[in-house]
């Protein structure tokens, strides 16, 4: 029964692939993938050794840790150190979110270590932190002396100290390295340790991506993560919060693997739009093909790794994100206090302590505290309505400000000064103008702008061709899997190779009327 079902699934996969074949898709990879798709692993003949070489993993926004070969040993230099990083760049929405975290070799998370099953590896480790640390190789079967647990398997590596880790890798899959100090983990000390099999798993993937999921508690006007807090207001993929996460670029028809690693206090249901995947691996390595299961959301628990694979049959810019609503936000406000609201620094919440439920005076259901704590109706005396989805700019609202005029007016969400009495698009950025509704913005206790566009601040080759305003609703643990037809794919990849970044294209003005629908 299981086999029949599998064959059926393969059959429909072929149907989809057949449709594609009618289009211009004709690249070798595509062909290869389709061939593999209709056979079980056992039925697939060994092809030339070159085609069985695993493709290298791509971890967006994170570099690889370089290595040198010394007498048959791959030698790496890993440096633990404080790292000043940037979750989000400066934009119309406010200043850059700069964070003083801890990481490795200038990166948070650390650079990706990528090796092959059977390799002998040596990691010369140097501690440049102000406190002792060690490195644990999560999931690896190494001799105890290499396990990186202070006091059990090795002494602490003191500040300025060094330690040499050396072992052979006899597994393959998605692993990671991290400090074995809990607070150091919460300061960011983790990195990928990818081990490729000697011959690539079948069906072979054309693209192999990896993202590390992290969460952070950072007080307003502070740059140092609070490692004790249970209220997380910044959520990152490979050290970037949406929309600063770099999209994954895929050619239509390619087989794709995405590897997730989670090190934090929460589990993350990672959801992919528009595509069904199979879960093909865990932190323990490859799952036998007979035990793969389909889904479009995979729960990545703390300390777990999950690999998913799919054939990218549907062109489009597909969201990939944690589906916990609070993890789809940046700088959650009513929980942490004042927020930069369209850059105007509006006060919306009560403060971190109150946001965490610490009531200093009165009670949690009082008229004053209730709404701010999400436990009552109305508006706190110290809180203003804040949604900027529609309606006035924050400058125009608040006590004593007359309500917006009854006549309909359209405004650009990104450029509030652009106003019109007719629908259309913004001549500055091309975004569709939004109808203002008098009073619509005065929703009490609304904690987060759901529309925070910053296209220009995060522009890079990988974002080429995305529609104006694509950044507006990208926050927290969000990125894009861009499945592009061959011509568009080549265009974007050429830009990536050349490092060519151009400002987003403005829409020509004469198109306004057509684009309203
Ligand atoms: Cu999450």
What does this molecule look like?
By secondary structure, the protein is mainly beta. The protein has a domain at 2-40. It is 10% helix and 27% strand. The chain contains 5 helices and 24 strands. A hairpin with a 7-residue loop joins strand 21 (410-411) and strand 22. The protein starts with a helix and ends in a 19-residue tail after the last helix. The model is unreliable at 1-49, 333-349, 380-405, 438-448 and 507-517 (pLDDT under 50). Copper (II) ion binds at residues 266, 268, 322, 324, 327, 477.
In short:
This protein is mainly β and 517 residues long.
What tags apply to this protein structure?
seven-stranded mixed beta sheet, disordered N terminus, mainly beta, binds copper (II) ion, 5 helices, disordered C terminus, five-stranded mixed beta sheet, 517 residues
């Amino acid at each position: 029964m299981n086999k029949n079902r599998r064959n059926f699934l393969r059959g429909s996969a072929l149907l989809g692939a057949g449709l594609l074949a009618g289009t211009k898709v004709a690249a070798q990879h595509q062909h290869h993938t389709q061939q593999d798709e209709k056979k079980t692993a056992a039925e697939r003949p060994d092809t030339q050794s070159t085609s069985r070489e695993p493709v290298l993993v791509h971890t967006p926004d994170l570099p690889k840790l370089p290595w040198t070969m010394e007498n048959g040993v791959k030698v790496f230099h890993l440096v633990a150190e404080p790292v000043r990083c940037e979750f989000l760049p400066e934009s119309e929405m406010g200043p850059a979110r700069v964070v003083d975290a801890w990481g490795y070799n200038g990166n948070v998370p650390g650079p990706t270590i990528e090796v092959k099953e059977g390799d002998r590896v040596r990691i010369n480790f140097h501690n440049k932190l102000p406190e002792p640390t060690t490195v644990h190789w999560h999931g690896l079967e190494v001799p105890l002396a290499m396990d990186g647990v202070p006091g059990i398997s090795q002494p602490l590596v003191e500040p300025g100290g060094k330690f040499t880790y050396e072992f052979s890798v006899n597994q393959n899959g998605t692993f990671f390295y991290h400090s074995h100090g809990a607070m150091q983990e919460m300061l960011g000390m983790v990195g990928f340790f990818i081990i490729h099999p000697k011959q690539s798993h079948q069906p072979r993937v054309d693209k192999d991506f990896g993202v590390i999921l992290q969460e952070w508690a950072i007080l307003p006007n502070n740059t140092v993560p609070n490692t004790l807090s249970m209220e997380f207001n910044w959520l990152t993929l490979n050290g970037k919060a949406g929309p600063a996460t770099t999209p994954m670029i895929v050619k239509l028809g390619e087989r794709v693997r995405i590897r997730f690693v989670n090190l934090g206090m929460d589990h993350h249901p990672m959801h992919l739009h528009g595509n069904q995947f199979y879960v093909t691996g865990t932190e323990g390595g490859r799952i036998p093909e007979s035990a793969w299961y389909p889904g479009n959301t995979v729960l990545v628990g703390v300390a777990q790794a999950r690999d998913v694979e799919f054939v990218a049959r549907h062109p489009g810019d597909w969201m990939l994100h944690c589906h916990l609503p609070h993890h789809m936000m940046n700088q959650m406000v009513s929980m942490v206090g004042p927020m930069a609201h369209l850059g105007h620094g509006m006060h919306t919440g009560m403060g971190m302590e109150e946001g965490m439920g610490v009531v200093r005076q009165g009670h949690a259901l009082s008229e004053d505290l209730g709404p701010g704590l999400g436990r009552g109706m109305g508006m706190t005396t110290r809180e203003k309505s804040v949604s900027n989805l529609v309606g006035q700019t924050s400058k125009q609202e608040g006590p004593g400000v007359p309500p917006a005029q009854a006549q309909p007016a359209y405004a650009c969400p990104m450029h509030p000064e652009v106003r019109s009495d007719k629908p259309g698009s913004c001549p500055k950025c091309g975004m569709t103008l939004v109808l203002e509704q008098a009073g619509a913005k005065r929703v009490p206790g609304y904690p987060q702008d759901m529309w925070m566009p910053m296209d220009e601040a995060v522009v890079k080759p990988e974002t080429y061709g995305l529609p104006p305003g694509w950044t507006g609703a990208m926050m927290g643990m969000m990125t894009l899997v861009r499945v592009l037809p061959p011509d568009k794919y080549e265009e974007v990849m050429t830009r990536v190779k050349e490092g060519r970044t151009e400002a987003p294209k403005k829409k020509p003005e004469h198109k306004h009327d057509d684009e309203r629908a």
